[in-house]
C-alpha cells in the first residue's frame, strides 16, 4: 500500500509539517501541540489498540476450542501478519511522526519498515482469500472439506502464502529501482518517483489488490447467500449439530465483515483520496484507513469468537485467585466449550 493513488502513487514535494496551533512568538507556543504530533498520537493509539487485539488472537487462539481447525489456523496466520504490521505503525511510524525524527524518516531507514508493511499486507490479503475459499468449501462442499483443508494442505497453504508475500517483494522493491518510503506530505508511506515504480505500483500493487479483494467479495457474497438460504430452510434439532451450524454461520459472518472492511479501505485509499484536498483528509483516507483495516480485523475475530473472552476471563480469575487449584478448573471448563 502506498500514500498515493494506485498507479500514480509518486512522491510529491514535502509539505511543511511543523505548524503549531500557536505562533512561535507566543510564549505559550512551547506547550502547544503541533499537527504532526496529533497525527503521531492517532497513529499510536490506533496501532497499539489494533496490535493488542491481534496479539490476543495470536496468543490465545490455541485455547479456543471452536478454532482448533483449518479456519483457526488460517485466522492465526492472518492475525500474525496484522499484528506485525500494526507493531511497525505503533513503535516505528508513530514515534517517528510525533517526535519528527529525521533519521527515521530518511529513505534508507523508512524503506525497511515500508517493505515490512507491504509484506504484512500481502500476508493478510492472501490469508483472507484462502479463508474465504475455506468458508465457501465448508458451506457448499461440506463432504470434501476435510480433504481440501486437511492439516497437511493447510500447512502447505500457509507456507505458500508467506512465499508469495515475501519473495516477489525482494525483486520488486530491492532489486528494481522502487522504494516504499516515508513522506511528510500527509504522514504516509509512498513509492519513489521512478519508471520502475510507475509500472510496479499499477500492476503489482493496485491491480493485484483490487482483483484479489473483488474475488474475496464475490466468494463472501455467494457463501453468505447460501448460508442465509439454508438457515431459513433447515431446522436442526440435535444440540451438537446446531452448535456446529451456529459456529459455521459465525465464521461466515466474520469473514464477510472483514471483507467489507478491506473493500472500504481500498476504496478510500485508491479512489476517494483523489477527490479530496487537505493533508488531514488524505491522512485519514490513507494512513489511518490502512491502520484501521488491520485493527478492525483483530476486533472482528474477537467479537465473533466468544471463546476468546472465556479464556481471558479465566486468565483474569487465575491471576486474581489465591487458590492454585481453582484456576485449573476454570481453564478446563473454558476450553471444553
TrEMBL record:
<dbReference type="Pfam" id="PF10328">
    <property type="entry name" value="7TM_GPCR_Srx"/>
</dbReference>
<feature type="transmembrane region" description="Helical">
    <location>
        <begin position="38"/>
        <end position="61"/>
    </location>
</feature>
<feature type="transmembrane region" description="Helical">
    <location>
        <begin position="250"/>
        <end position="272"/>
    </location>
</feature>
<feature type="transmembrane region" description="Helical">
    <location>
        <begin position="209"/>
        <end position="229"/>
    </location>
</feature>
<feature type="transmembrane region" description="Helical">
    <location>
        <begin position="284"/>
        <end position="305"/>
    </location>
</feature>
<dbReference type="InterPro" id="IPR017452">
    <property type="entry name" value="GPCR_Rhodpsn_7TM"/>
</dbReference>
<feature type="transmembrane region" description="Helical">
    <location>
        <begin position="83"/>
        <end position="104"/>
    </location>
</feature>
<dbReference type="GO" id="GO:0016020">
    <property type="term" value="C:membrane"/>
</dbReference>
<feature type="transmembrane region" description="Helical">
    <location>
        <begin position="154"/>
        <end position="174"/>
    </location>
</feature>
<protein>
    <recommendedName>
        <fullName>G-protein coupled receptors family 1 profile domain-containing protein</fullName>
    </recommendedName>
</protein>
<feature type="domain" description="G-protein coupled receptors family 1 profile">
    <location>
        <begin position="53"/>
        <end position="272"/>
    </location>
</feature>
<dbReference type="InterPro" id="IPR019430">
    <property type="entry name" value="7TM_GPCR_serpentine_rcpt_Srx"/>
</dbReference>
<feature type="transmembrane region" description="Helical">
    <location>
        <begin position="116"/>
        <end position="134"/>
    </location>
</feature>
<keyword id="KW-0812">Transmembrane</keyword>
<keyword id="KW-1133">Transmembrane helix</keyword>
<keyword id="KW-0472">Membrane</keyword>
Amino acid at each position: 500500500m502506498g500514500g498515493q493513488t494506485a498507479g500514480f502513487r509518486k512522491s510529491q514535494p514535502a509539505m511543511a509539517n511543523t505548524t503549531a496551533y500557536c505562533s512561535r512568538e507566543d510564549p505559550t507556543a512551547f506547550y502547544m501541540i503541533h499537527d504532526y504530533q496529533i497525527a503521531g498520537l492517532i497513529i499510536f493509539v490506533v496501532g497499539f489498540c489494533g496490535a493488542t487485539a491481534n496479539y490476543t488472537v495470536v496468543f490465545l487462539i490455541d485455547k479456543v476450542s471452536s478454532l482448533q481447525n483449518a479456519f483457526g489456523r488460517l485466522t492465526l496466520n492472518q492475525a500474525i501478519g496484522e499484528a506485525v504490521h500494526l507493531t511497525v505503525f505503533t513503535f516505528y511510524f508513530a514515534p517517528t511522526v510525533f517526535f519528527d525524527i529525521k533519521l527515521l524518516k530518511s529513505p534508507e531507514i523508512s524503506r525497511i519498515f515500508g517493505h515490512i508493511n507491504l509484506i504484512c499486507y500481502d500476508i493478510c490479503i492472501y490469508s483472507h482469500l484462502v479463508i474465504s475459499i475455506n468458508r465457501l468449501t465448508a458451506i457448499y462442499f461440506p463432504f470434501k472439506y476435510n480433504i481440501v483443508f486437511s492439516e497437511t494442505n493447510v500447512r502447505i497453504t500457509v507456507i505458500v502464502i508467506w512465499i508469495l508475500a515475501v519473495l516477489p517483494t525482494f525483486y520488486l522493491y530491492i532489486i528494481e529501482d522502487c522504494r516504499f518510503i516515508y513522506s511528510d506530505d500527509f504522514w504516509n508511506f509512498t513509492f519513489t518517483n521512478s519508471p520502475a515504480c510507475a509500472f510496479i505500483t499499477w500492476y503489482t500493487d493496485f491491480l493485484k489488490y483490487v482483483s484479489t479483494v473483488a474475488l474475496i467479495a464475490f466468494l463472501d457474497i455467494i457463501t453468505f447467500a447460501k448460508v442465509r438460504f439454508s438457515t431459513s430452510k433447515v431446522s436442526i434439532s440435535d444440540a451438537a449439530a446446531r452448535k456446529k451450524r451456529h459456529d459455521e454461520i459465525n465464521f461466515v459472518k466474520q469473514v464477510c465483515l472483514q471483507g467489507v472492511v478491506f473493500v472500504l479501505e481500498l476504496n478510500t485509499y485508491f479512489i476517494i483520496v483523489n477527490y479530496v484536498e487537505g493533508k488531514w483528509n488524505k491522512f485519514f483516507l490513507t494512513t489511518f484507513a490502512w491502520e484501521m483495516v488491520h485493527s478492525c480485523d483483530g476486533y472482528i475475530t474477537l467479537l465473533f469468537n466468544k471463546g476468546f473472552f472465556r479464556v481471558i476471563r479465566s486468565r483474569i480469575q487465575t491471576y486474581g485467585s489465591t487458590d492454585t487449584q481453582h484456576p485449573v478448573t476454570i481453564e478446563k471448563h473454558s476450553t471444553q466449550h
